[in-house]
Design a protein that fits this description.
This protein has about 110 residues and is mostly beta strands. The chain has helices spanning about 1-10, 90-95, and strands at about 25-35, 35-40, 50-55, 60-65, 70, 80, 85, 100-105. Strand 6 and strand 7 form a beta hairpin.
């Protein structure tokens, strides 16, 4: 009887690991610039994804592993999306124009 119980548990698909399913790690980050802004972004692996002065009216799209570490020279002049979802950064930036912060993938 004990062998039957173990087989039933082992055969339960809810207990099995999700083999063959990709682990979603990489995220698409998009920054839209309403104003010129120095931008540095690194992903969780420390890879430099963006390092440049972006011009007003432009946008930048990159992929990487969250969380993303940001350094923005004029944070009030940008909007950020991760995987197509707008991420409000005003609480992170406050009244400052220069900002350093990290962003996770939105839930």
């Amino acid at each position: 009887v004990a062998d039957t119980a173990q087989s039933a548990v082992a055969g339960n698909p809810d207990d099995a690991p999700d083999e063959g399913l990709p682990v979603q790690r990489t995220a698409v980050l998009k920054i839209r610039y309403q104003e010129d802004c120095w931008t540095e972004v690194r992903d969780a692996r420390g890879r430099q994804l963006i390092y440049r002065l972006a011009k007003a009216g432009s946008e930048q799209e990159v992929s990487g592993d969250p969380p993303f570490a940001f350094y923005l020279g004029y944070a009030t002049g940008v909007s950020v999306e991760i995987d197509g979802q707008v991420v409000p950064i005003t609480d992170l930036v406050g009244n400052s124009t220069v900002a350093r912060f990290k962003l996770e993938r939105p839930q």
